[in-house]
Amino acid sequence: MRLSIIIIALAGLTLVHYADSQDLPPYRKPKHYPNRHRANAVKSAFQVSWDGYYQYAFPHDSLRPVNNTYEDDRNGWGASAVDAFSTALIMGNGKVVSQILEYIPTINFNQTDTQVSLFETTIRYLGGLLSAYDLITGPLHGNSSSVKVSAILKQAKRLADNLKVAFYTPSGIPDNQLNFNPPRRVGSSTNGIATIGTLVLEWTRLSDLTGDPEYALLAQRAEEYLLQPRPALGEPFPGLLGTNVDIDTGLFVDGSGGWGAGDDSFYEYLIKMYLYDPTRFKRYSERWVKAADSSIRYLVSHPTSRPDLTFLAMWENRTLNFVSQHLACFSAGNFILGGLTLDEPSYVRFGLDLVDGCYATYSSTLTGIGPEIFRWQDDSLPLNASYNKPPPANQTGFYETAGFWITNAGYVLRPEVIESYYYAYRATGNPLYQEWAWEAFTAINATCRIGSGYSSIKNVNKVNGGGFADFQESFWFAEVLKYSYLIFAEDAAWQVQADHSNEFVFNTEAHPIRIYGGRKGGRGRKRGGGGWERGGWGESFKGREQRAENWTRRRGWGRG
């Protein structure tokens, strides 16, 4: 049944007061204010999505909600079920957890009729299984039988044993494409930095849980080629890399990249590995700092029509390309997490600026949802430069108001903007980010709800989304619904913390992985630089608090 947007929207309009950041002593986390009405609305959307999937698609991978059929887009192993596992656990949805627990031991990871992606299988299946195991044996201990829980880790190991043939190459750089029955490489000549560098968290965690070092060594050996890139063309800016690496030699074959598809989660995992274990992965954090500093120095761009907005350009060697993606909006949250982890408030402030830009991509469209790909004209370069062209004539008016124009108007149930709102809120306690997340969730709920679930849409800047693609992505369960829930949920062990008390770190599919040894994680490299002290990021907050006040007044809402 379609959720009532009117009822949901009335559930939590009052903004509560929050402490000024200048009152926060070092390492003290800001006050957070749960909203049970909104959290329950997200739970309801999860249940609608699961019920449709379970009735019409389970145990296949994904639901086609318009026609009430299924798609085996991820090897037929039940991708939506595994992706939904950690979210159901966090939401306390016992019935769904039981259904998935019963299913996990039955998955035959030896058998598939379709080509296997090492990257997608790692982040969805391996990450989902390890996360569920960490949650059930950690903060949710005692919720399930030991036999069922041991089956989760057993299946994770079984899957990795089939996947590890990908690393059996001359260089140790894995082939991302595999065939099973039996497991073997397809024989690709190159692999990308995201599909190489987004394995190390899950494979290291598997080693730490099983005591078998092989899994971690395989992923970390491949990562070394990205930590020490060769030749020079592969690192056009310090810490910022090209995209593709020769599988036989480990050498970069191009110098084009960005914080978007093909590159994104390599940078994401550098700081997350340090959070996972700062002793073993200090070098990873140093590499992240180089990438972050170069991004701020070389990639920052402001649109000619909206110089108040901040975007990160992509690059082709050292030439900038003023284009970005919904996917790239994760970078805002990653900068915030990096700033919290390293006690560097400048990274947090920059991440908040990127959040503002991502918000504009949502607030400017007819549906209130951001597009897949967008462009802008940079305000600091000659306007007649060949790589700094103005918008097409049919989008000039839109560009003047929005600060970007749309080149791919689809929305495939992506989480990255809401993900960054979540990190912004957990870092600051500013309810503005809860409001933005609620705007996004209600817009998605109003536009993408169809038939037995939720579907990707074709055009975010047309009424009703321009039609449905009839596909409910598995990461809708893992990411969009999880981040939408967590920003309104009570504090818990898996929530991101601003005071170095993290117990979990999220993989790129939003599956929470327990920090090494169960430790609370990761003091930063230094305590200075402002930190949480008076004068650190207080001035930035002062302006943001006023902006939150103005934003709510425009809507006639009070700060209770």
TrEMBL record:
<feature type="active site">
    <location>
        <position position="416"/>
    </location>
</feature>
<dbReference type="Pfam" id="PF01532">
    <property type="entry name" value="Glyco_hydro_47"/>
</dbReference>
<keyword id="KW-0326">Glycosidase</keyword>
<dbReference type="GO" id="GO:0016020">
    <property type="term" value="C:membrane"/>
</dbReference>
<keyword id="KW-0732">Signal</keyword>
<feature type="compositionally biased region" description="Basic and acidic residues">
    <location>
        <begin position="541"/>
        <end position="552"/>
    </location>
</feature>
<keyword id="KW-0479">Metal-binding</keyword>
<feature type="signal peptide">
    <location>
        <begin position="1"/>
        <end position="21"/>
    </location>
</feature>
<feature type="active site" description="Proton donor">
    <location>
        <position position="372"/>
    </location>
</feature>
<feature type="disulfide bond">
    <location>
        <begin position="329"/>
        <end position="358"/>
    </location>
</feature>
<dbReference type="GO" id="GO:0005509">
    <property type="term" value="F:calcium ion binding"/>
</dbReference>
<comment type="pathway">
    <text>Protein modification; protein glycosylation.</text>
</comment>
<keyword id="KW-0106">Calcium</keyword>
<dbReference type="InterPro" id="IPR036026">
    <property type="entry name" value="Seven-hairpin_glycosidases"/>
</dbReference>
<dbReference type="GO" id="GO:0004571">
    <property type="term" value="F:mannosyl-oligosaccharide 1,2-alpha-mannosidase activity"/>
</dbReference>
<dbReference type="InterPro" id="IPR012341">
    <property type="entry name" value="6hp_glycosidase-like_sf"/>
</dbReference>
<keyword id="KW-1015">Disulfide bond</keyword>
<feature type="compositionally biased region" description="Gly residues">
    <location>
        <begin position="529"/>
        <end position="538"/>
    </location>
</feature>
<keyword id="KW-0378">Hydrolase</keyword>
<comment type="similarity">
    <text>Belongs to the glycosyl hydrolase 47 family.</text>
</comment>
<dbReference type="InterPro" id="IPR001382">
    <property type="entry name" value="Glyco_hydro_47"/>
</dbReference>
<dbReference type="GO" id="GO:0005975">
    <property type="term" value="P:carbohydrate metabolic process"/>
</dbReference>
<dbReference type="GO" id="GO:0036503">
    <property type="term" value="P:ERAD pathway"/>
</dbReference>
<feature type="active site" description="Proton donor">
    <location>
        <position position="120"/>
    </location>
</feature>
<feature type="active site">
    <location>
        <position position="264"/>
    </location>
</feature>
<keyword id="KW-0325">Glycoprotein</keyword>
<dbReference type="InterPro" id="IPR050749">
    <property type="entry name" value="Glycosyl_Hydrolase_47"/>
</dbReference>
<dbReference type="GO" id="GO:0005783">
    <property type="term" value="C:endoplasmic reticulum"/>
</dbReference>
<protein>
    <recommendedName>
        <fullName>alpha-1,2-Mannosidase</fullName>
        <ecNumber>3.2.1.-</ecNumber>
    </recommendedName>
</protein>
<feature type="region of interest" description="Disordered">
    <location>
        <begin position="517"/>
        <end position="560"/>
    </location>
</feature>
<feature type="binding site">
    <location>
        <position position="508"/>
    </location>
    <ligand>
        <name>Ca(2+)</name>
    </ligand>
</feature>
